[in-house]
Every structure is written in C-alpha cells, then in structure tokens.
Prior knowledge:
alpha+beta, Dna Topoisomerase Vi A Subunit, Chain: A, domain 2, five-stranded antiparallel beta sheet, 10 helices
Amino acid sequence: MNKKTISAVIQQVAQCALMQSGVLVPEWLPDGNQRNSEWIARNIVRGDREPGSFRICLDSGRWNDFADPDAHGGDLVALLAYLRQYSQSDAAREIDSRLSLGFFRERDQQTLSLPVIDQTKLNERLQQREKEAQEKRARAERKANQLWNNAKVADANHPYLIKKGLPPFSLRQTSDSNLLIPLGAAGGLVNVQIINQNCEKRFLAGGKVKDCYCPIGELTPNCRLYICEGWATGASIHLSTGCPVVCAMTAANLESVATQMRALMGDNIELIIAGDDDRNTEGNPGKAYALRAALNCGAKVVFPNWPADAPRHLTDFNDLDLWIRAQRDKAGSHD
C-alpha cells in the first residue's frame, strides 16, 4: 500500500473514531473525567499524578497537554499513537479492529487491501450526529429560558453566595432554591449554570457552553473590561474594580469570549484577561489558557498576587478576596 492510500485509511479511521469518542477515549484514559465536551485525564506518557493539563475534545478529536508543548494533535488516531508510542498506522489498525471497521485487511505481512468506503454513508452519519447535537442544544435553550422566566430574584442568603461572600447581582433562583447563572450568545439566553443548596454546579445537559458568557456590570465604550472564568471570580473583580466583567465559565472559553468582546466593543476598550492560577495542577491550565487568550486577542493579562503565606490550594480572585477578608477578621478579633 502506498503512502497516499495509507493516509486515506488513517483519515477514514479518524472520522469513525470521532463518532465513538465517548467510548474510545475513556477506554484509553479510564481515570479521567468529562467536563462539558472535554475529557480531562492524566497524561500517562508523562506519568502525571493528577488530571489537569491533558485534555481531549470529544467533539473535534483535538487534544493537547499544556504541560508539554510537544504533546498535541488533531484527531484520535494521533492521540492513540501518542499514548501507545507507536505509528499512526498502528494506531489506526488498533481502532479499526476495536470498532470492527474493516478498513484494514491483511493479505500478507507487507500488503494491505483498502475496502471500498461509502463516503456518502459516512457523511450521513456525521451529519446525523451534528443534527442530534443541535437538537440537544435547542432543548437546553428552551429549558434555560423556561427556568429563567419562571425564577425569582436570587436570595442573598443562598448558601453559594454566602460561601463566596458575594451579592446576587442579577442572578435568579428557582422555586426549589437552585441559583441560576445565565449564559448568553448572539444576544440571547442559551443555557444556565445551576448551583444547588450544596453549592454543586452543572450546566443543562446538551446545552451550549462554548462561545457563551455571563456579563456583570454595564459594557460602555472605552471601558476597561475584564474577562475571567467563573461567575464568583467575575463578581469579586467587579466589586473591587467597579469595571464590567464577562465570565467565560471555563478556561478553554476565554479566547473565544475575548475575541467576541473585541469585535463587539472595538479597539478602544482596555481588555484584560483575569486568569485563574491553577498552581497545583500540572501545566497550570488556567494560566496557560489566559496567556494564550491575551496574546491572540491583544489583551493584557493579570493573575492573583498571592501573599507569601497564602495557602497553595487557592486559585482565583474570589479565593484571594475571601482569604484576605478572613485574615483581616482574625487580626480584628485580636485587637
């Protein structure tokens, strides 16, 4: 088989593998966990002790390790080749066998036969998968709007707000005391983050998160605008600076949201990425994503300035604010 034919087979296997990403990736990296569309796991090649910097997008197949600039790829064949430390051809063979695809058929040790691939059917399956994803997003959007419209103004005594030391601003609360954080895109509400009485968080299943955001404060021409990850971080920044904040909800979403804000508000705004500092996570993904977003969007970047005695488990601006308040309260109690 010539190189061109082998390449074609690998591409076909990669397409089919993507359709089974939710099965294959957890098999290869079983101690990981899914967060939205990403599988976050230990990089077994580097011998990570904890998950964090190694992430695989189950929707696109792209993967990278922010602790290792050489560990990245565009599809699941490349991922398996990296994990097994062998060629992409061998990785494609393993996937072909696991999924019973039949793209590879041995005739002898050196010759392979390429079966006829029905590209039309393959495209139809991919289109069907995208259609199903769109339907899930639409259902989540309808549910988000229903929840939001039926909710009341958030109670300042909600356990999450007390825990974070924050006012509710424009948040709402359901009749069963779930806090709602709105996520918008293209001017409309498309999803909500739900926080229950135990401070557990979740987005609506199948709902859109990528490219979405939650604003705090009023966006005005020529303003200083902060882009951060979570709502509590954004609320803390808004309280301390008085500036508007847009919460991207995840580190991987910072660049997309910053790009949207730059396009919406123009070059006259002062755009600042306020990143998390995941100091105890390999590769510090919070810092890596923030730096990349700032570089690609022409923005400044800031991180929490930790006092020497601040605990290592603190990661964001809300953590820092709460810790400083606690130290002041302790000092005051000794006066």
